[in-house]
Structure prediction request, 358 residues.
Amino acid sequence: MTLILGLETSCDETAAAVVRDGRFVLSNIVASQHELHERYRGVVPEIASRAHLERITPVVHESLAGASLHWNDLSAIAVGNRPGLIGSLLVGVSAAKALAWSLGIPIIGVDHVQAHLHAAALQDGAAPVPPPTFPALGLVVSGGHTSLYHVASPLSMHAIGRTIDDAIGEAYDKAAVILGVPYPGGPKLDKLAQTGNLKHHRFPRSLLEENSLDFSFSGLKTALLYKVRGVPRGRGAEAVFEKSLADLSETDRANLAASFQDAAVETIIIKMTRALDRMADGGTPARSIIVGGGVSANSRLRERVTQLGTTRDLPVHLPAMSFCVDNAAMIAGLAYHHLVEGKADDLHLPAVATTSLR
Ligand code: KG4
Ligand code: ZN
Prediction:
């Protein structure tokens, strides 16, 4: 039995979790910092790293107690060491080194983006969660990423498509500001969209070149802004908008949110369809679809990806809601595969702002 304690501090969640044999979650503690960043409508890196420092020790203790374990039961310490805010990553990496050194057990650095694609394989209750079959088409949708991956195994994947401007989560968060939806924007916009008519407006689906697997969401965001405020006279700080958000009724806002959501999600589904065709044409047809990242909690995306799986006769692996947002269970779970392949790190493990995935 392999018991791994995982730590995650890459952005604004301080998290620790214990996972058995890469899949079975014994505890999953996430201390969110939303209340600290709310007034700035976005994550302030310096505030985030200070809050991680205050929270990491109690969160680790809680995760061990939640799993009813003692320090000596642990097989290894895992930490998300890339990508992320460098000051935030350093807190998790330093804590992981201190624990691994004092317990005399291996330390394993895990790529946060790769870990998001492991979240759907995690099981935290009695209901069995089937592990994905490979090769798989992977989709990571978060505040920092919108990427498609050819996934050959949990540790072997390469990017086949990525956003050329905003990530989908970022687009959601900016759309939320445009529509006056409070922070955190993504989940609240999703809720508002569920009360609106998604066919009320037809927003652009940015597909780029024929056959491109890349994404672009900045045009969609601007289209929403112009729909809400009108086309501005002048540019930049001089821009004068003819309309204001206050001119919209609750129903108008809901219809705009639903139509925005429909366009954003449909774009992703079109690219996933192309990616499945591309994998089949290349002689390695996907045997499953794996989705991960904060936006995998989105109701419309979950519905449409599930439909896509049915149409293509492929199993779809979506994370349980508690494993969509940043968490440490996905870090500890993926670290098991590193350990099995003999890929442990040492105390020189760096914190790195960028992903290792290409
Ligand atoms: O994976 P994550 O927790 O952090 C990053 O690694 O970026 O993703 C956070 C992002 C945020 O942009 C948040 O607004 C978005 O995921 N998000 C959602 C939903 N839940 C979280 N976006 C749309 N619909 C949701 N239900
Ligand atoms: Zn994330």
About this structure: The radius of gyration is 21 Å. The chain has a mean pLDDT of 95. Residues 11, 142-144, 169, 172-173, 184-187, 190, 293-295, 297-298, 325-326 surround KG4 (ligand 1) (CB under 6 Å).
